[in-house]
## 1
Amino acid sequence: MKKNLVIAVRFTLVTTVLCGLIYPLVVTGLAQMLFPRRATGQPVEKNGALLGSRILGQEFQAPYYFHSRPSAAGTGYDPLASGGSNLGPTNSELIRRVEERVRKWRAENPGTPIPADLVMGSGSGLDPDISPGAAEFQVPMVARARGVSPEALEALVKQHIEGRQLGFLGEPRVNVLELNLALDRLYPLRGRAAR
Amino acid sequence: MTANGWFQILLYLLVIFLLTKPVGIYLARVFEREKTSLDPALRPVEKLIYRLTGTDEKREMRWTEYAAAMLLFSGVSMALLYLILRTQKWLPLNPQKLPNVDPWLAFGTAASFTTNTNWQAYSGESTMSYFTQMAGLAYHNFASAAVGIVLAIAVIRGIARRETDQLGNFWVDTTRCLLWVLLPICLAASLVLVSQGVIQNLRAYSRAKLIDPYTAQAAGANGKTTAQRVTEQVIPQGPVASQEAIKELGTNGGGFFNANSAHPFENPTPFSNFFELILIFAIPSGFTYTLGRMTGSRRHGWAVWATMAALFLAGASTAYWAEARGNPLLHGVDRQATAMQAGGNMQGKETRFGIADSALFATVTTDASCGAVNSMHDSFTPLGGMVPLVNIMLGEIVFGGVGAGLYGMVVFVILAVFIAGLMVGRTPEYLGKKIESYDVKMAMLSILVLTFTILGFSAIAAVEPFGTASITNPGPHGLSQIVYAYSSSAGNNGSAFAGLKVNTPWYNASTAAAQLLGRFFMVIPILAIAGSLARKKILPASSGTFPVTGPLFTTLLVSTILIVGALTFFPALSLGTILEHLMMLAGKTF
């Protein structure tokens, strides 16, 4: 018993150094060498300023941008408070929130069915994507606010659809930050000071 | 539901099937101390560890010493984790200057990671320093996984050996498990994950300037909402991939971030998702072949595999069906899956995963004792959320945790041959070993510990204000939140109906107690069975021996598992998820 206790103490220390320090530091070194951008979160930069990460969603509220999904992370897309709302299916608070979003979106694009992901929050609260349907649904709103033809925007959305990985994994999707940056590049906001 | 969704689920099972034999052979070779191709590199490291720790690699242990060594290792390493959590402010690699973790949370977290539960009552990104994540939490992902694996190996030795009381050396087995199995696979797997976009660095968090700043309504301290201008987004960083790999491979499940595998930095693409799913089942599935190989009855190993695969498919199909149907209470939402959207119940799910990959992940993570989540189970439809809950209640023996799934299943195998023996009026035998009253008593003990822990704590929490005050989803769902919390704790799963506010003294203490009971009071009777079986003679099979191979045995085993599970937990389920389902169909909200 005493002998095993001594071994337990030594074993804990030795394996902590091996699995808790050497292993993650070796992985860090290799990752930084092989995939430097991916290992640091795929930063998106413009003129030296950091605009975000390609794979972390951001909140968009202006009508001249495509909007991300509802987010329960902090005040919205706060990576220091990732997570979902955890509202259950029969919780009246969930029903109320979704109905409110349905009303808002129906006013922007009457008559078109509202894609599920556009009015339901994600699990991480940081979902960088929306479904192709949710992007297309927003085309009339963005076209009006930006003064661009809906056809041009629809084509832009189509270009930004990322299909299933390897053809069958996951779901097709549109990266909202990339789509909005492309909007700014192709159809800069005129007369409206970039806030 | 879509054809593509079903294709992914079936393809996943096929990949797992194909991995079973190679993984199983490799595991057996490592623990039988046969030659492997990694020997030239690892053998010197192995010898060095024995020298540094004072381990005699030739010596074997009886089951009592094996159990004692396991408990001592768990106790010492748990104490070290508690110490790290309480002192992280003064330790290196803390660029965010995070403070020390408070005592209740530190105790709860230490118990949770030591028992392979990885129940988390905190948000990693705003609580844990990089040093704590690496040397404290990720380390325990290795340690607790290795403990689970070597216990299963000891149990298999107990079944395979005859007329001996020696089950192997705990320190040797654990060392070989870390060096030959967990570290090499994790090294490769973490790089695959980084290639998909899982981050891995030691930098401080950076700040991004939003292109569309906005005004948010934030809840103030006095309960009033105040307008707040948001112009920046903090981009967290950290050594995530190295932890993500062992989190899945070791069926631990503790996320670097609060959102766990739903977080884009932990699980950025559908491929990383599929890969993480494979890591979860790889070792548990391989273990069925290890069982077959080491006991000399490969067909028994496959019969156990078939049992697990059948229960897996039942769970995955139910969850997929329920989530694809979605929530009828949400009017005006298009629930139909098309090429343009996943439809269904997307609440708490990521766009890149959609319905099928989320339902599959929820099933796999609770079949195993993993507990990582890529979607929020609390927001599943009632029947969709019942699948993970039932999986945990059955004891996580559908492939199950690394090692834990196998020894959990052995308990049900013993029960099944015992029941078969009663039916034909013969002494039950398992692979030539007579199953006697001591063995059945120990098997029942380990099943009852789980039952009493789950239902006992749930009963207290469901009636006492300190338990019910944490409920966030009223109505029947609230009961499910509590029952899920104790099932997950006692089953060492770690996933949650995460709305429940668990960072309170009661929940930190009671879930920690449930985790420790669920781990160690389950393991000790099982090791006792192993010790008892090892001492027995192996009898030649006769015409009266009930075969533990083939479809008849698989059917009996599935029935035993379902009957024990249903008899135990049906009342709790009917007042929770089933009632909620009926209420939902009737249009009732809470």
Note: DSSP finds eight helices and six strands in chain A.
## 2
Amino acid sequence: MRVALMATCLGDLIFPDVPRATVRLLDRLGVQVEFPMGQTCCGQPFVNTGYVDEALPAVRAYADAFSGFDAVVIPSGSCAGSVRHQHSLAARRSGDPALEAAVAAYAPKAYELSEFLVDVLGVTDVGASFPHTVAYHPTCHSLRMLGLGDRPRRLLEAVRGLELVDLPHALECCGFGGTFALKNADTSVAMGLDKARDVVASGAQVLVAGDSSCLMHIGGLLSRQHSTVRVMHLAEVLASGDGAGS
Amino acid sequence: MSATFLGMPPFPTAARTALANEQLRSNLRHATGTIRAKRAVVVAEVDDWEDLRTAGAAVKDAALRHLDEHLVVLEQALTARGATVHWARDAAEACAVVADVARAHGVDEVVKVKSMATQEIGLNEFLADRGIAAWETDLAELIVQLGGDLPSHILVPAIHRNRAEIRDIFRQRMGAAGRPAPVDLTDDPGDLAGAARLHLREKFLRARVAVSGANFAVADTGTLVVVESEGNGRMCLTLPEVLVTVVGIEKVVPTWSDLDVFFQLLPRSSTGERMNPYTSTWSGVTQGDGPQEVHVVLLDNGRTRALADPVGRQALRCIRCSACLNVCPVYERVGGHAYGSVYPGPIGAILNPLLRGVGSDPQTDSLPYASSLCGACLEVCPVKIDIPSVLVDLRRQVVDAHRRQRVPTPEATVMRAAAWAFGDARRLSLGERLAGLGAPASRWLGPLVPRWSSSRDMPTVPRESFRRWWRRERAEGGRS
């Protein structure tokens, strides 16, 4: 099985610890992962703002970089959702049947990290160790667009030393929403502040989620409040420890 | 007393004002939370809820696919049963029909059943300008009307008011509109309802003309249906001599048995009740019983425009239950007025642009962006309207409508530049070097920074991007 990593633009440029943790984790699980250098972005920021034509270069870059792999691991529910459900929109609009065919072939092979671990590799205990109190934020696209269900929770529950606490109103959006965070900044912040309050109320030391974008938003609010709660990506937690469960 | 949505600012501006109102936010949080919990309980009781949703969507889709034929059947059935059918292309035509009927009977007042269609066309204001008072008889609509206020929710239009505010409105304003509220009126819900009942009873008994909407119009039997909770609708539909019903053309269902699925879906989705309290149905005129003159106004007002939209037409399935409003995190924080329409919330964010068209009015164009695309609305919609997908498609329409503009917006310029960079990884690497690693991310985002960082700290761009790390560690002399 040829497996590729899509680092996501945010992971590549702003949060490289997340794709690095993903590589470390997959190494431990014996998965040889490749990183096609031609990759850029999933195109979601364009599509979700209405710029479908502008998403096309990114979609073509994805098609060139990832066609032919058996699986593409994406440490983001939102970007995985974009590849699976939105690339076809952009391809259809391009009027390029070859691109449409390429999308139809690669879209089902895009996996969000927890899907890849649980469904493809069949593991829930990845041998991680993380002795902290953790709250998990399910992120909307992971929850509703991909239907990840309890996969991330099952992975976290198997981590040594990790105490998972309930996050009040967990199913509610944090308010990031891509360009919504800028175009409707006041509403986005109001939603985020409520989420940050719930995070603090949960008593967790660390907030974990599968999307760096949502974490950037919630983390930015927590940090502005000088909160001691840290935010971490699911990949970073699952890659922590020495891999032997200690 | 005639507040209007006309001239409302675009959503982000209106939302900012609403967010500053702490009382409003607390009222909304309490009210939406309560209805949301009620709905969740009664929906969980139904084993085949998902099948019901699928069936509801299918019935509506089938009806909309042959809407032209069903409307003609409806017109024939209504006419055969003694009703007069009027076709209205837009708000002005529909309002004129109602005003003409009122004038023909020489009345200066009508009583109204709560109706979204008549709100949509601004009927009360139209009639008021012609010296005819249109009295709202639904409790929440009465609160809104007496308060000189605007509705902020489809089902619970006064959701932004708490009971102390309602008591004050009743005390101060009821007298000018008819029987005054008792001077010692408390804010006890029972007392408030009692005051409204006495006030409204006079109007029910006096009015000669009533105006309603309809939740459904059954084509083959020519039957109109109103579902409500307070009994005020039943009063309006049975006591006056003349009844005018304004109904959107998308409310048609082909047969009586099509109602079955909606009578299960609607009450549980809207009020969180298992069964609707007052369901009134009437087919034309019944000799010696109820109104002896019945008019039906079939309203288009943008519906055929919406129907022509291949993605957006699913919005016409909407049965106005409000479940999407109650579950929406944006609506919960900003309330209904920020949407600038009688249709607020997620459904309003798609319905208004679909009915009006995009590309000319900044307020309308702002609505598809009034969502974080979290998808909670789709999850609860009883007729499975994929609101997030329609929002995204409407955003595309907004952008496309401005593509020919000679001077592109700053946003379009940023998007084009980013599209160029993301078209080739080498350009991305170049941009990375130019922007400077190790700097605050603000250097990349330029003028957008204040919108982010007024309340949120910005991440620092790391010294080494992932692809550089990979090249150093893996590709050149690394392990793979």
Note: Chain B touches chain A through 65 residues (CB under 8 Å).
